[in-house]
Design a protein that fits this description.
The chain has 28 helices and 27 strands. With about 900 residues, it is α/β, with parallel strands linked by helices.
């Protein structure tokens, strides 16, 4: 016996447990004798004609030196209550085992295989023969020793490692065992575990289902991750074996999670997985705690959305493994034996209370944990700060409740045992009421045959049956954890597996709600236009690299660049000419500038016509007729340049662009600079003497203006001589990463630098004019022109300050020409509009709508000007501490007035009070 036992076990903890078991059996000490010593393990005893054993993980594994830890509400209490619920249903069923009551002895495994092995001795103590011949009572009579209860079959256990340990003991005593949760493929070995059966399918089916899922998603390069132990290692081994047999799938890495992981262990696991980062698919056979810590490590490494997990039934549709890690788990595909929620059990369990469930010795502990309260029990001190249980709490009403996933299988396991006993009773005890002599005791090997022969509809309506290895058929639901595009984030059923896969790929979604299945590939056939790049040291794998940008596929392993004026075909097997475009009149980039230019030309024409019509009126004369007509001409040319910038490039158009681009602004700001300089010189001279300054007559002003303009014209003609105008086709400007959008742009030969140089002289004039406007800001309001010119220049500066970052900030844009042309023309139109609106529209308004104000005022002598300048100087000295701030406030106010388009009204009202110079 010892040899047989030792041959079936390997690990030191199991070996030590078996040594202890052998010692207990040899010396005749079992749980019964320990009861006499007061160390009887706690268990639930339900009286009946036939007794079934039950093994449930009521408590978690305890810390070192302690067998049991905290109570497990779902996996422990829910499953235990499911067995008692099934017994109640069977005992109340007149058609199933009539007149026979099923009893039970239910034990706690504490989620530890060695501890469960000790507890299982309770089930075999009735079968251990003891020699009591030399034992006599004090009166010499033989002792009356109560006959121990005989367990005919065992329901359980949960974990595969526990079931393996217990199955070895029960096999020795021919006690059949039906598990409701153990799925390790090892348990399908009929030669070693012949008395073991299960109502859940083995992981070999699960591994096949997972392989089918991986292939359906087009993956062929994945890693595997397993918890150390029978469940994890056997599951991964089955997956690898099946994938080798099927072919077409490469395992990048196969990593084992230690039973007792050290600090930082999971960070190392993530780093190892990232060594083969293109194997994004991760097949994971692990317990809940390990799954959670793997997700935490991935999140810690900022790899959210990188790994694509395919989880086994230990993950299933559970919330606990992914709690607080939902973003990392998004897109995870999980598998779970097909199940259903049992409504009858929900009604049964939610009605349980401390009063009506005294048969469950662990229910009080569950009650405290579920309702976060404390019961007062003899010998246990009441915890301060924790509320006292009232006993009036109700499950689901006062606490969260969701039926545990394996409840259905626990019920099916009990019913499978009951149906086997019923068939056995029908054959051995026909017509007998109750248990007959042929079934007392129940012969285990015969019962096993009846168990393998059962075939009935289980609690969820699906068939319950076993094959020759005691395995249930493989029926799985396939879930995916989704967070986007659904009302409540959670697991969504996306398919089933029953010997073959049915997967709804269109219902799958991944990180960020993406519907496209991410790739986890190795040796994937390359698409058209992709070259193969072999992976060094991995002959079965290569990377497919797209001939990106403007490359085309020269051969299977080489990409080459297309000529500069060509782009690749869509399938990248060759090259084709790049289309040539230009700015069209119907383009949105042209419509707005043209519209503004037309309005500006109409407005400028109207002002010029008004000034010509009222040429001899005081307002027109006071504004300086000669310079006004020059300035209006410049404004007209500024609007006109919009049409030249949008017109189809040709040699003539390019020449006119060079000529008129800076000319209009040069004319406008030359005239304005001359005006502001004249005003400044008059008032500065007035502070010193009563002698008028030189060159303030209209003729002098015109000569100065034309001299300033000639500088611009000279520069343009030199440019003509050095580099004659011509057109070019720019293939680099609209050359985005996607060659499908590549275009050759027909344009003039003006670079950004030459364009800015063309405008630079006008900008210098504008800045100089602004400086004079600032210096002349102290001119009394009764004197004409100074302040409107100042406001005009402030606002113009703001417009061009906005133009510079937009113009140069789009230098790398694929629509550079369109954006820059629109920006330039709109900026020029706005600057022209500012000049027109602030300098001339108020005058036109007075001329047309208030002719009574267009009258000659008293002429002022230069001496009066000197007096006004002196007064202004004194006032400025009194407010010297405020001048800088006022200057800034003026500029800011003008900017906001301009944006709100309210400044015109202000100018209208101010010009009603203006005094002629």
């Amino acid at each position: 016996m010892a040899t047989e036992l030792h041959s079936s076990l390997v690990s030191p903890p199991e070996y030590q447990a078996w040594v202890r078991l052998l010692w207990l059996l040899l010396v005749g000490v079992g749980p019964g004798s320990r009861a006499q010593q007061g160390t009887q393990p706690q268990s639930i005893k339900i009286e009946g004609d036939i007794t079934l054993g039950g093994l449930f993980p009521v408590h978690s594994r305890g810390p070192a030196g302690v067998p049991c830890g905290e109570v497990k509400k779902e996996k422990g209490i829910h499953r235990l209550e499911a067995m008692m619920y099934a017994l109640d249903q069977i005992n109340s069923d007149p058609d199933l085992l009539p007149n026979i009551t099923l009893g039970a002895r239910i034990l706690d495994t504490c989620s530890r295989d060695t501890y469960a092995l000790e507890q299982s001795l309770t089930f075999v103590q009735a079968l251990i023969q003891k020699d009591n011949s030399d034992v006599r009572c004090s009166n010499g009579e033989p002792p009356i020793i109560p006959k121990p209860e005989r367990v005919v079959g065992v329901i359980g256990a949960s974990g595969s490692s526990v079931s393996i340990m217990v199955a070895n003991v029960l096999r020795l005593f021919a006690i059949p065992q039906i598990s409701y949760a153990s799925t390790a493929p090892e348990l399908s070995d009929n030669s070693r575990y012949e008395f073991f059966s299960r109502v859940v399918p083995p992981d070999s089916y699960q591994a096949q289902a997972m392989l089918d899922i991986v292939k359906a998603m087009g993956w062929n390069y994945v890693s595997t991750l397993a918890s150390e132990g029978n469940y994890g290692e056997s599951g991964v081994d089955a997956f690898q074996q099946i994938s080798r047999e099927a072919g077409g799938l490469c395992i990048a890495q196969s990593i084992k999670i230690p039973r007792e992981p050290k600090p930082g262990e999971f960070d190392k696991i993530i780093k190892r997985l990232m060594e083969t980062s293109n194997a994004r698919g991760v097949i994971i056979f692990a317990n809940e705690d390990d799954i959670k810590r793997v997700l935490q490590a991935a999140k810690k490494s900022n790899l959210t959305g990188h790994f694509l997990f395919v989880g086994s039934d230990s993950w299933g549709a559970k919330i606990s493994p992914i709690q607080d890690q939902e973003d990392v788990a998004e897109g995870a595909v999980t598998i779970l034996p097909k199940r259903a929620s049992i409504d009858g059990f929900d009604q049964y369990f939610t009605s349980r209370s401390l009063e009506n469930n005294r048969r469950n010795i662990w229910f009080a502990e569950f009650w405290e944990d579920d309702f976060k309260c404390k019961l007062t029990r003899p010998g246990i001190k009441y915890e301060l700060g924790r509320r006292k249980c009232t006993g009036d709490e109700r499950i689901s009403r006062d606490s969260q409740y969701e039926q545990e996933g394996k409840v259905q299988f626990v019920i099916d396991a009990v019913y499978a045992m009951a149906h086997a006993l019923h068939s056995m009773h029908t054959d051995l005890c026909p017509g007998s009421m109750g248990v007959c002599d042929k079934m007392d005791p129940v012969e285990g090997r015969m019962l096993l045959q009846y168990i393998h022969g059962v075939n009935f509809n289980g609690s969820a309506g699906t068939g319950v049956m076993f094959n020759e290895n005691g395995d249930a058929p493989g029926r799985y639901d396939i879930f995916q954890y989704q967070m986007s595009n659904i009302s409540n984030p959670g697991y969504r059923n996306i398919g089933q597996w029953t010997n073959h896969l049915r997967l709804n790929l269109e219902e799958m979604q991944w990180s960020g709600g993406d519907r496209k299945i991410p790739e986890s590939v190795c040796s994937f056939p390359c698409e058209s236009g992709e070259r193969k790049k072999m992976v060094k040291g991995v002959p079965c794998c290569w990377h497919c690299e797209l001939c990106d940008g403007y490359q085309y596929l020269l051969d299977e392993f080489t990409c080459d660049m297309c000529p500069y004026d060509m782009r690749p075909l869509k399938n990248r097997t060759g090259c084709r000419p790049t289309p040539i475009i230009k700015l069209e009149w119907s383009s949105p980039w042209a419509i707005i500038p043209v519209f503004l230019a037309i309005l500006g030309i109409l407005a400028t024409t109207g002002v010029i016509a008004t000034f010509i019509r009222f040429n001899d009126t005081p307002i027109v004369r006071a504004s300086g007729r000669e310079l006004s007509y020059v300035l209006l001409t410049g404004i007209f040319l500024i609007y006109l340049i919009t049409f030249l910038m949008i017109a189809e490039p040709s040699v003539a158009v390019c020449a006119f662009r060079r000529l008129f681009l800076g000319l209009g602004m040069c004319i406008s700001y030359s005239a304005m600079l001359t005006k502001t300089n004249r005003i400044y010189r008059i008032f500065e001279q007035g502070k010193k003497s009563v002698t008028p300054p030189k060159f303030i007559s209209p003729t002098s002003q015109l000569i100065i203006t034309f001299i300033l303009i000639s500088v611009q014209l000279l520069g343009v003609f030199i440019w003509f001589g050095v580099m004659p105008p011509h057109t070019i086709i720019d293939y680099e400007e609209q050359k985005p990463p996607n060659p499908e959008f590549a275009r050759g742009v027909l344009k003039c030969d003006m670079s950004d630098l030459s364009l800015i140089l063309c405008l630079s002289y006008s900008l210098v004039l504008m800045i100089t004019c602004t400086v004079y406007a600032i210096k002349s800001r102290g001119v009394p309001e009764t004197f004409n022109e100074a302040k409107p010119i100042g406001f005009t220049m402030y606002t113009t500066c703001i417009v061009w300050l906005a133009f510079v970052p937009i113009f140069f900030g789009t230098a790398q844009s694929t629509e550079k020409m369109f954006i820059q042309t629109t920006t330039l023309t709109v900026s020029m139109s706005l600057s022209a509009t500012v000049s027109l609106g602030m300098l001339y529209i108020p005058k036109v308004y007075v001329i047309i709508f208030h002719p009574e104000q267009n009258v000659q005022k008293r002429k002022r002598s230069f001496k009066a000007v000197v007096q006004a300048a002196t007064v202004s100087t004194r006032l400025s000295q009194k407010s010297s501490d405020k001048q800088n701030g006022e200057s800034k406030i003026e500029c800011v106010c003008v900017f906001f007035f301009f944006l709100k388009v309210t400044y015109v009204g202000f100018v209208f009202s101010s010009h009603r009070k203006e005094r002629l110079f």
